[in-house]
Amino acid sequence: MNPVSRPLRIAFVAYRGNMRCGGQGIYLWFLARELARRGHHIDVFVGPPYPDPMPFANRTEKLPNPQFWGKWFEGDRTRFFPEPNPFRVFEPLNFYELGASLLGFLPEPAAFSVRAFARLAQELRRGVRYDLVHDVQCLGYGLLGLRALGLPVVTTVHHPLSVDRRASFVRDQSLMDALGTMEFHPVGMQAFVARRLDRVITSSHASGKQIEQDFGVSPERLRMLGNGVDTTLFAPRPSVMRREREVLCVARASDPTKGVLRMVNALAQLPDDVRLTLVDQDGPSHPARARAATLGCEDRVEVTGRVSTDTLVNLYSRAALVVVPSRYEGFGLPAVEAMSCGTPVVATAVGALPEVVRACGGGVIVEDASALSLAKAIQALLEQPETRAQLGARGRQRADALYAWPRVAAATEEVYRELVGDCAVARGLPARTTTSARDGTALAS
After folding, report:
1. Beta strand 243-250 with 222-224: parallel, antiparallel or unpaired?
2. CB–CB of 335/324 below 8 Å?
3. Which domains occur in the chain, in start order?
4. How far apart are CA 365 and CA 355, in angstroms?
5. Is the confidence at residue 69, as pLDDT, over 70?
6. Average pLDDT, the chain
């Protein structure tokens, strides 16, 4: 059977799989589900924190990780030695992770990629075949080993890690802080690996340009597919009453690229009846609350703490509008989630936000990203309920058409088939690749 028409065998690798640990976990779970619904055979090899159950996958294999960096960061060095056998700390990869963590490096992506390489090599030796490997933002050296075994490798990069490193430099207050930033972010490894993989998938043209610039990936291997949103879940809820003077922001105040403090500065310039609800992990010294206290508007700021997805959809549906005050976004998932819920968006003109918001037509872009300009745009939209309703309706319709997971999965499948077909032709095997299941044979479990 021709590889451009039959179901594919896909091995996903992701060094962190939990949906509450970032966008990579959300992306992994939903994309794997949609590809399985399209008839493809999905195996997932994933590191901790592990994902929610994935019943649609043929299997989900949890690769171990001692998580030394997290223990070092939290100051919990008593758990460095694994139980019940503490001598396992001297196993090569474990020892590398321990040493790298103590020196301030983030060793997880590199170590996970080597573990994934070793595990997939075992699978190949026992006769399991894959058409390709899809890496989710790990970009560790082990992926090059998989390519050396003849496996085509695709990676998804929502934005290059260099963006996070630059943001970290912004908040560094000393030379030691800056040195720690240099050590922590494995930008060199990720750029080196990305340049050598078969395809790099990203979520926007803005992010694609950043990957070209910072990682040196050639544009002919980049594919801009958008990111997915579960538009059946993130949907308007007519039963939820709008609060006409409530502004919602979904962002981590600890990340300077999210612009939360700028939003608080804008709030202080808005009328006293405008309130800000911030979806972020809470704490006694939350920076947004501290900034609001200095500006005299602390009583108008609510920090929700972690919320369930259902609660988040209610918050989107309740707010008069959603503000995305970021300094950079490779996609801007909260903006698309809000528009999918029928709520208009006010966003800064950075990264992919103009691209995404204008494509959906569900919001307003603030070209001058100062707090004053942000406040003026928010106030203008709060005073126009009919405009908000029109933006909300249009944003919902287009978000569903452009960013629903079935569409993103179909576009991803096209990239897979393009790559598998290219590899087959390069090897003189138009009907199959050496790494794909044999024609007419059942897929091994």
Report:
1. unpaired
2. yes
3. 9-228+406-426 (3.40.50.2000), 243-403 (3.40.50.2000)
4. 10
5. no
6. 89
